[in-house]
## 1
Amino acid sequence: MRLSPRWQFPFRARWATLLILAAVIGTIPWFFPSGFYFRVAALVWVTALAAVGLQVLMGQAGQVSLGHAGFVGIGAYAMALGPKYLGLDVLLCLPLGAIVAAAVAFVVGRPILRLKGHYLAVATLGFGMLVTMVLVSEVGITGGPDGIRVPRAELFGWRIRGGETFYWIAGVALLVGVWIALNLQDSPSGRALAALHDSEVAARTVGIDVAAHKLRAFVIAAVYGAVAGGLLALMNGFVTPDAAGFLASIEYVTMVVIGGLASVPGAVVGAALLVLLPQTLTFLHEYEQAVLGVLIMLFMIFLRAGIVPGLAALLRRKAA
Amino acid sequence: MLAELLQFLVSGLTVGAVYALVALGFTLIYNASDVVNFAQGEFVMLGGMVTVFAVAAGIALPLAAALAILVAVAVGLLLHRLAIEPARGASAVTLIIITIGASIFLRGVAQIVFDKRFHQLPAFSGSDPILLAGAAILPQSFWVLGGALLVFLGLFVFLEKTLLGKAVLATAANRLAARLVGVDTSFVLALSFGLSAAIGAFAGILITPITLTSFDVGTLLALKGFAAAMLGGMGSPLGAVVGGLLLGVLESFAAGTISSAYKDAVAFIVILAVLFAMPQGLFGRRSVERV
């Protein structure tokens, strides 16, 4: 078996990645000309958190999911439904949503993960559709297609609001999320995932419980998605079923692949790109979508392994 | 009761025929290249939209339809030439994201060239329903079913009886071996994109009088076609046809007897159940993993 270069300096590379990310999160607010930028950047960090979760599943375990947004939706709606129907504090609903998502992933994942490749893709797609359908159809509970309000969070009498506050909350959440994902990659569990990614049969022969590891990766991805969804709902003060929709799921997959499937920071870069591009392309008005599509194609044609691994390879070649 | 069942069956088969055509398009491209072409739904959209706008410009319907198919084929060939061919050798998932980019691009262009409204075509032979054993059937349904049948038969004859068709099958079975015996596999790949685009556009033209069309109908159709292809077993043209028809009928019966809000849910649950029992789909090749 060929070991990819990322195994060579795991320790140094991991801390370098975290340091760079922390530095970016810590310094870019200096360059924000207005408060609006805090909101956009917070959206980038939260979206990246969901994408990092999907990277664990797709990049590390090699299992495709076209239903990741379903878990984002579960996390987001927990923030609205928990306070409304259970009378819970909205902040308590963040871990609650994560637990519900984990439980759902555990139950759904067991049969679904027996499927491989495109069959797994269509099964996860079905799961995502089911979540969206429930959110859209149960108008009495979820508010239907119009969405539902999320109450403002309050911590010891301090009301959590404003773009700047959410920027730091989302930034720290992403930093923690990336730290865990990087650690996972270099843990025995991560090695097991990498092994079953290459060949399930080979992994099984060396004694790896393939089904259990795949399921764990699925649950981890679901928790990332739900936490990101919860934060998103808190930030917007509102959720609609679009958060759980098929297009959102496709976007997460695109983020992970465009940034670099094998790379945790790649997921962050991919998310940043896909959140920021539409924001910066608005000056193109109606040409926005067309240009976005062309850019996605160009990135994938010229940096096939994704942006982060692709650029890293280019730099190495220059250095050599 | 019987009339009701017949009604559900016919409307299900009509929608299912379109899913089957989309699934066939998926299968052709997948067999030639391992690419799941998420822009497949955009061909259906192009078929419908170009026809609508050509008819509005005063062109006769058959000519407009032919024009729409030509446009879709050109787009399919360009997609292959400009986006898939330059990325040759990239992993399957990279290629899939390229097709997603292509579908976003095509949708974006369509909303500029055309518009964002819904459009309808007049039914080809009137819209007075035909009464059959108590069920009211739109004449357009027969056009859809007949057209789909024509495509199925045509494709069958092409694949089984012509040398070029056999080259396509050989490429699907083993690309390297096909190349060794002299099959020009990159021509087969281009042909598959052109053929898929034509089939998709044809489906779009047939269904527009019933379901309307707009610049963004492709997404949902691609999703359904993909599910149908999986249900039938990826890579099997017969599976694509059966999967599509089955999916359409399932949805129709679920909408009629259980709940129209959850018709897709019922369909997906059945697909999941089938896949759990038969992880390769109904007609998929059993593959043995080589270690």
## 2
Amino acid sequence: MENLGSLALLLAFCVSIFALVCSVTGALRKNLYLIAAGQRAVYVVWALITTASGILVYGLVSGDYRMMYVATHANKAMPWVYKISAWWGGQEGSLLFWSWILSCYGVAVVFTNRKQFKTMMPWVVGIMSFTQTFFLVLNNFVVPPFTVWAIGRGIITLPDGQGLNPLLQTPSMAIHPPMLYLGYVGFIAPFAFAIGSLINKQPGDEWIHTTRRWTLITWLFQTIGVTLGMGWAYYVLGWGGYWVWDPVENASVLPWITATAFLHSVMMQEKKGMMKVWNMVLVSATFFLCIFGTMLTRSGIVQSVHAFGISSIGNYFAVFLAISIAATVWLILDRLDFLKSESQLESVVSRESTFLFNNLLLLASCFAVLWGTLFPIISEAIGGEKIGVDAPFFNRVNVPIGLFLLFLTGVGPLVAWRRSSIESLKKNFLWPTVGMFVLMIVLFGAGMRSLYALMSFGLCLFVTMTIFSEFIKGTLVIMQKESMNVVRAVVELTHRNTRRYGGYLVHMGVVVMFIGFTGAAFNQDAVIEAALGETFHLGRYDMKITEVKDGETENYAWMKAVVDVSVGGEHIDTLSPERRVYKSSRQPGSNVDIRRRLNEDLFLNFAAMSQKGNGAVIQAYIFPLVSWIWVGFWVVLFGTLVCLVPAKIKYSYARTEVIGTATNVPREAHAKT
Amino acid sequence: MKNLKFGVIIAVVVATIAWLAFDGATASTAYYKNVSEVNKMGDRALGKRFKVGGDVVKGSIKRNGTEVSFQIVELNNANPGQVLKVTYTGNDPLPDTFRDGAQALADGRMNADGTFTANHVQAKCASKYEAKPGQIKPGTDPSHTSKPTSRS
């Protein structure tokens, strides 16, 4: 079986090179047969990689412990879901998974566009095949997934495997990598189309229209992936946090930041024909950061608790990145003439300018995170001393940027294109601003002293009010005109311009998430060693360990502390944090218990048995408002899905041509976003 | 004029962020060192923040109430005899991966007596698992007296 798998991968590698060569020569010679052959080869590559993956997954599920990958990532007692997720639970498997998703996207792109973009498609196929070939090099020659024990070791097979890392044996970790990968790998399509149009010197923004939906979907996958990672960190790692600016977390969020910037600045190109070079840079940067993120996670070049261990694989990535980046930069510089802006910035108070600042801030944040992540490497290269920065650095930079972005979220959509008059500003922002300051004063009066928290809550209200006012205004008009009731009118309004109102919903979700993030300013924690029956306190909670149980399952042995929680003498809940030791890997794992409420989470971790009186060492935390992050995420998800629904009314965006100096432009009606 | 306005605003924004970054960097710098390097530094090591990496000595992990102490040697014991005694006083749970023989990264400061006080510990599991016979009791194995700071 493993021979068949290796053979399939080797063939896939050859066919992928064939696809690359055919497409490129086909495009240069305008030979339709070669182009068609290249496109078909993409399907073949998919079939071959799918076969290889199928064999690996079959090996994992059936427990073929002759294979090294299977023996080190699966064991008999594991539930079958985790046997499948072991596919992406280790170095070799996860890179095969990468390749497989890439080939799926390849098929999707070729199939959906086979009748369009005759001149651009071969280049798109070429770029995708080039990347595919690179990953197949890794799969075949660097980290082959089908190595058997017998090679050089004389061991034929093992009775049982070591099992998947316990930290990964949890539902959110089973779907977190696929989501992130779908998001990462998916960015190849917008990138390939962008570069394809650039190579072809294609006029216009065709690639943007084709890939808009695609970009949005991959952005959504990235968002889901990052949020799942946060949720996992929160309840599986049990370190009492959802984000610590670990290099691997940073790697996952970097492309998300540039993708978000791209989603916004692309509107400038669609509607005003501006920022064309910038968009090229952003879409390329996002793609390269996706590859770079994979490299960070896989190569162990930066010390991280997530990393898969040091390996030479980083060099391969570095070469691939260097070649691709150099080619892209050269291409953009060479084609600058085709990327001329069609209009200019006119006023500091305009939609254009809010987009500009949105991009500036996102990029600054991205740069700061990248710099901080690579700081140990950079400082070692320059000063010979390895110096790291951690959470305080990232927070100090990103919190103010986040607040500024939040502010723009409220302002941007309501400012008119080109320029805004004082009256329209007053009309739109008077009440939200008043609301913001009133809330800040009230919270200050209530004893809140953290400046950032005050600003954050104030801005959250500000943005919420602007978004609601947009919905209310539109709804009232529709209610009058079409005599509909409120609910139908809201639906109708949203349906008429899904992009605009879906976007507002996404913004609303972001606001809700910010409320959750702000809660972190008020976290409380305590480590308590308590004997059985002893009471301890944190915040308003009184807790008592009533029992310490133990037992075992086929997969792990466990120990549980049963903790009664009461407030003001009244019993409200029983939490039972648990410790496990997984049998086959002898690795410990912990299952925290969380009482989740909208106002705050009570989070208990069973740290250890205590020497005194059969009790336990319990780490207790109070995390205010954390649940809002997850609620906000669902709102973002819903909003993005709304954006993807085709709008009922097709707006045509006439480009405003600037002829001479327009001094008395009539005040524009609400710009249609 | 218009471009000047944009230029000024952009410059102000960038300068502010750069200042924040610089300020944040000085506040949270930590030097990566290995055991023999910090031991050699002597008094010069006082007052600076370090991240010291090494292997956890087998059987050295002791829990005393909410405090955990352990010893680390250099990775793969590259420099035999160089040992660092670490006391962990942080509030965060120790990582699940933190156990005998694991690679640990202790984050904290040197004390005048040559011991190290860590307020944060990261750990990677040893590359090879060793099966130990006998009953497993999840709360009692001294190697995992505590919990995860880490992800894998």
## 3
Amino acid sequence: MKKSKESIFKNKLAWAVVAELLILLVAGILEPNFFHIEYNATTGMFYGSLIDIVNRSAEITIIAMGMTMVIALGGTDISVGALVAVAGAFALKLLRWDVTMYPTPGDYTVKPFILVILVPLLICTAMGLFNGVLIGKFKLQPIIATLILMVAGRGIAQIATNGKQFTTGYTPFRFIGQGSLFGLPFPIIVTIVVCASVMIFVRKTAFGTFVESVGVNPNASRVTGLKSDKIIMIVYTLTGFLSGIAGLIYSSRISSCDSNNAGVNYEMDAILAVVLGGTSMTGGKFSLTGTIIGSLIIRTITTLVYYFGITSESIMAFKAVIILIVIVIQSEPVGKWLATRQARRQKVGELRG
Amino acid sequence: MDKKKSSKLVNFVTNPKYLMVLATIGIFLVIYGAGILMYGDRGFSKLRTFMMLFVDNAYIGISAVGMTMVLITGGIDLSVAAVASLTGMFIAYGTTVLGLDPVLCMAFSILVGVLLGLGMGALVTYLKIPPFVATLTGMFLARGVCSLISRESISINNELIDKMAGWKMYFMKYSGGEWVKIKPVAYINLNVVIFIVMIIIGTIILQKTRFGRNVYAVGGNEQSARLMGLPVDKTKMMVYGFNGFCSALAGIAYALYVKSGWNLALQGGELDVISAAVIGGVLLSGGVGYMIGTFFGVLLKAVIPSLITFNGTLSSWWGKIITGALVLLFVALQQIVMHGKIFKKKSDPSHKKE
Amino acid sequence: MKGIEIQFPGVKALDGVDFSLRRGEVHALLGENGAGKSTLIKCLTGVNKMDAGKITLEGKEIRPTDPKNAMDLGISTVFQEINLCDNLSVAENIFIGRQPIRRGQIDWKEINRRSQELLERFKIHIDVTRPLSQYSTAIQQMVSIARAVDVDAKVLILDEPTSSLDNEEVKRLFDVMRDLKAQGMGIIFITHFLDQVFEMSDRLTVLRNGHLIGVYNANEITKLELVSSMIGKDLDEIFDLKRATQKPDAKMMLEADHIGVPGKVEDISFNQKQGELLGFAGLLGSGRTETAEMLFGVTKMQNGDLKVAGIPIKIGEPMDAINHKIAFCPEDRKRDGIIGDLTIRENIALALQARRGMMKPMSRKEQDELADKYIKMLSIATPDAEKKIKELSGGNQQKVILARWMATEPDLLILDEPTRCIDVGAKAEIHRLMLQMCEEGMSIIFISSELDEIIRCSNRIIVMRDGKKAGELSGENCTQADIMRIIAGEKDGETA
């Protein structure tokens, strides 16, 4: 009794894990090779569907780390997809600063290379801060505030590259998305580092508790001495920064920038990952581990659906059904209904006992 | 008498209810006027340019009619573009691949649109799911189903559709004893007619019916509306249903415009629709907005790319940035004008609503 | 209404209350916060469902399902908080939901004309086509009354209609009420202004803690008797409480010099020594809570000077107060106190953590120890510290909030109605704790509507009335009657 009550939240996480395992099981039955991981000695890399799933989920996982806290605050950030495009555009812009002088994709013109990484990240962080200021200081609704950059962001990305699609062959840059370290694709390493850092920052400082507190009851949090506007700004800024990282990985993966299609619907996927991971859309308690699993679930389904020969776009229909189930279960009236049913059952049990 | 009239005018202009709409119209006129001054010699001042704003954006406008209502209730609908795209696919697949009657296809699409709208409305109204999430689900569903039908763009090959798409009403002038088309040719097509009719219907619903006024009341203060005895739940359901209808209608208009159905059509179109409404002075937090504002919001949003085209040197992407800036401007304006007073009250610590 | 009973989780909000209203009568409904007035009204208007009892109107039993239904049945209500849509025009607010229709369209001209006429009755001359948000709270209040009056109702409920009106406006409202009364309408009038009660009402019903205390004819009861029946003695059991002893050499803790927030509380001056328990008495809306919120920076203090331990300080937001070792348990526990979805442990640690700052987190072990310590010390009834606070009973929630602030080891603790809506046992527990903390040198400001507990615990008592300090009494030898006299306004000044 005592145990079951305290672990309601952890149960949500458990559901996510069970769901992921079930999907993997189905995959394993349909495609026995699914779990096969192969080591290629010449490239020094591991190959296999599982590795691929983790690798391909990197961008969403990274963004969803920030999105988890945004949602825990009771907000949403719909500009992340646009920021992914912005990061890619500026990275490629710096790599191919003077296309006329260096016409082959193998060249790059901005030295040192670190700037190619730092500048896009800085721009995305600044954009995140812009969201944060509008929401934290000026008390705009999150959806309106982030709508502005969602619309303007892609425009900025296109302007940065003059509406052209640059490609690059520059190896250090391509390494971000295509390289490997310790036998694993580099995006996996980045994801691990990012997730670990965010988790340490959130759980080893009091930040996570503050976010949850503001998300549950902003009034009481203020009376308790928390500065909610600062907390809101930090969260949105962080989300901007993380979108920048995801943008670099994405553009490196395709060795080019594609301001039209980079990060399209990423905001939706990130939100979905968060919700699947057991964080409620109404704000409050959040689980970063849950979010990681949520992101993996999305990618696993995607991979699995490919096996059925279903096109990538139609995956959205499956996603819709999954979200529908999750949000209906999470919704307040259904929760109340379940609670009263449980209470009634307990009463009956007591009467009988 | 004259004095009374002028004071009435002052009253009208300073009434914050209308101020946002007037701002939209004002900014539109300024930008359009500037366009005429700068590119008048290249034909910007011609009637054709003006009419093309309508022809090229009618489908956005039709959807914005429904969106305006949803936004006034304080909700949002992200599924509009996906539902429109689904409609286009139904028509294209139905007529061209299955060889069905186009009227049947259109009726079916509208039915699906309304049902989807009602479904999302039910999620929002009865299950208290945030509109953002509920309609996001609807968007995923519509896009997914669309892709399940076909991944390829299907061009529509149907006599009736061709006829509908091809119908044009030219602007004529009387010269030399007979009516001739003015040059350069200016016309309106069926989409423009639908757009304008929908704006008129929307205005009548919002201003002249109890249902319409309930829409405003729900957006202004849902709790109060309930306590005043208004049918809040029914109102919200009907608004989402109506929006579903508008999305499907917009889909038909888009199908007539491009004469094809494509699963990826109108990607991000929901943002165009929402930003047109916001630029038109609709308050995203609900309770304020006019159809006529949305009408000018659509035009204002449309005139920017048109200007950029006439300029010829600017990247077309400035359009997005300017749209974003306009949204920011209008949101800021709303905070100042509409919230000036409300805000003071809310920051009043005895209310302590953050 | 007969034998109305309503049950909320944990607390019985109304217990077998009978209430009757005659035609052409103004019937005042009185009681302190949490007495059950609002709940009673909500039953009548169908916002809350009754667990037992029945409502009869003109001999017929009715069951209002929602406000709309109640309105159709003839019960029209002006709620305490203005329940209008301030984005709509004044006229529309009066007519929405029942707009006159002409030729299938809303007849705006008619709406505006009739609204104008209606408001003329209240001698309000405004442009009815402008949005409601442009007008003052007083006008908004009048508009909501106008709306309720215009409905062809048999029963009109006015819940604190005068709280934001000035004298002139109150007079106009009363004129209208007399008109309606003459027309045979029954009016339920809720207010905390006792003068108005006696001016307007024919009969009075007093509620306390969800119980019916009595029904009186207005001309047969004195103001003093009324106050005593409203506040009353609630604790039948006498607990062995000893007031904290005042050390003669105690240092000055707090000195407030003409502090105030215009429009809420003004000109409050008092001081408090270390280890002193200062009681704040007064009726609801008298400025007790507002003073507390001002001291803690929830409302920004605009006038006057404040000294803590002899040093002048400025308090702009709660964090400043916390840094000066002030703590505050707010009156509205649910809105300003508990963080519902967080655990008891997290709720207890939160204020201390906020003061330490984000980067110096408390270890899980430290939090556990803190939580365990206070759960034991305050005997919080919970299986463990990991339960969500919203799952606790009211009294235990209050103890957790108390623990949250005790953990910050404050010098000054402000308790706003800490014993409201909690059972007798927990109440005694909280009294004991307060006194114990005072003995240990903490200063406490104790706000309560129950005179009994204020008198038994406080060293000194400040009595508030209408946003001002109305008197100051020594706790040792003051009686309830002394305080009530000041509250009732029969005697002003210091009776130290």
## 4
Amino acid sequence: MLELKNISFTAENSNEKNEIINDLSFKADDNKFIVITGPNGGGKSTLAKLIAGIEKCTSGQIILDGVDITNASITERARMGIGFAFQQPVRFKGLTVYDLLRIAAGKQLSVSDACVYLSEVGLCAKDYIKREVNASLSGGELKRIEIATILARNVKLAIFDEPEAGIDLWSFSNLIRIFENMRNTAPGRTIIVISHQERILDIADEIIVLADGNVVRHGSREEVLPEITGKGYTLNACKKLS
Amino acid sequence: MKPMDPVQKRLLQEVADLHDIPEGAYNLRANGESVGRNTTANIDIKSKTDVSGIDIRIKDGTKNESVHIPVVLSESGLKETVYNDFYIGEDCDVLIVAGCGIDNCGSQDSQHDGVHRFFVGKNSKIRYVEKHYGSGDGSGQRILNPVTEMYLEEGSTAELEMVQIKGVDSTSRTTVAELKKDAKLIVHERLMTHGKQRAESIYKVSLNEEGSSADVVSRSVARDDSYQKLDLCVLGNTACTGHTECDSIIMDNGRILAVPSLEANSVDASLVHEAAIGKIAGEQLIKLMTLGLTEQEAEEQIINGFLK
């Protein structure tokens, strides 16, 4: 179980302080598929980075399975089972798709195992396994490889920051199938997805609406979804709640 | 033939990926003298009579054969200059593996300056792999100053893989190439310096006849207090295409001077150069750390990939 207790995060830019997360608390139980949604600039990506350790809370506590990880490094959190798929995947000159999957798996990875992960995200393995993760790959290809790196890790808590962005031509049903597979193959695994997409909200167990750095709504899909999609436009969530 | 000691065998493995005596044609040089040679029906190797070095002659039409000419130095204080000339006939397709490994545990400098000239015949294709490596904890420097000259006849192709990853204290590498009609030169250089090492790599590629082309790409990493100068020049003297690229990662107090340059002496020459120097991007480290690597492990993976 992941628990955030009264966390705040203030960004400092040239003597100007900007409070992005403000005294935020919530619990994510094991074996839950939780979608965090809300308006742009509400603090969703920052929250994901705080959980992964990429940013450090200004105050508050983060507890994973009873262990206080507030001061744990990115590496320590990764080794404790937190996986994080970036909204904008990073490019590497020289590192191949296979290298990245091998690092993600944390062990010797056979080519056929690596191919399974690539096939899962709809990429033809033989075309990609030796490709460098560099500027020659499109944004959509990188995004799928990013998701494959999470599949290659046996994570307890997976966080996806807008996984659907940039993969328009790849059907949503595939992405949803991946999430379902991830749940079925590891009981107890929690998946947190940041998304505006209704079809992803549709498969959530719980929905958290984040605005102005705080949780404005957290409940089951059945409770929250009708409130934010009255007319079918998820992006109106905040207006409807305000 | 003299047996090689374990240090020499280790050096041989580093520079030529060889565990022992290679197959095909070879000439092994250890501590200033030839310790083994093999010729084949198509590839002949003879010692020069005027200076130290060998002549390698490859017959017309030789395909899928290889020549290994590694050099290992394990005695401190040894300095040598060696002249090796390769005469490659027409319509050949061969692999040539050179390289030098120095282990210097003593206090005197050890130095090997290899001057390699390649005369590549019409429509021949060669792949030339040159690896340089240094080891040993003595105060004596390990110095390598290789000179490579390539003369490419009509329709020939030379692909060069030049690698110096570790342990060479001082190096000045000079590569000169002259290309005739439709000849093609491809260079992949990989260079890493650390400690107080200094490395200079100079290329001067002349595209002299129509249809010739060159692609010279250097990737380098300068760590600690090391210094690199990369000077890649392509001259387009006719209707030709040339590309040079220096791509470097700088770390610690490393310094790099990258001078990719072009000289167009014909209105039909099409030449491009690129250069980039920068530290490892923070987001690259973060990504690999989210996969469970420490910052140091992430750094090593990024460098290994970059120099692969």
